[in-house]
Automatic annotation (TrEMBL):
PROSITE patterns, sorted: GNAT
Superkingdom as given in the UniProt entry: Bacteria
Species of the source: Streptomyces albidoflavus
Pfam families reported for this sequence: Acetyltransf_3 (PF13302)
Stated name of the protein: GNAT family N-acetyltransferase
Boundaries of every N-acetyltransferase domain copy: 18-172
Cross-referenced InterPro entries: Acyl_CoA_acyltransferase, GNAT_dom, Ribosomal_N-acetyltransferase
Amino acid sequence: MPDRSPAFTPRPLRTARLDLLPLHPDHAAELAPVLADPALHTYIGGEPLDAPALRERYARWAAGSPDPEVVWANWAVRLREAGALVGTVQVTAGPGPVAEVAWVTGTAWQGRGIATEAAKALVAEVLRQGVPAVVAHVHPEHAASVAVASAAGLRPTTRWQDGERRWERTQEPAGA
């Protein structure tokens, strides 16, 4: 079962175009306008937060889950060529050998493969750290997130939660 060991502390990740940076409350000032479009929340729920409220959220996330069997790991997504933060990705690991992943890319940055590239890196990191099952919950009408989940190697299941389909990827243990 994942624990709060340093092995699951978010570390910087790099892809062809992106830097995934461990999320810090200071990222809120730059991310608040990126995530401000109310349409962005159609499928993920909630509403846009201003920079101070987002900073408070990121500080809570950075403090970690109140459940000792659950690890929260969050990253800000920076598109290197633009030198800009364009979204976030997150992992909630545990309890047990499963990690749930999620992604959000600002409306102005969508349609460029950023979420797909970030989600692939995130799923690879989860599997690299030895968590054998990766899941995401995706609204069936959110075609872009369905495409991201599929590209990240997750497959739809018959399980549902709060109107969202569970997507899953499992890794066989080494030597199996």
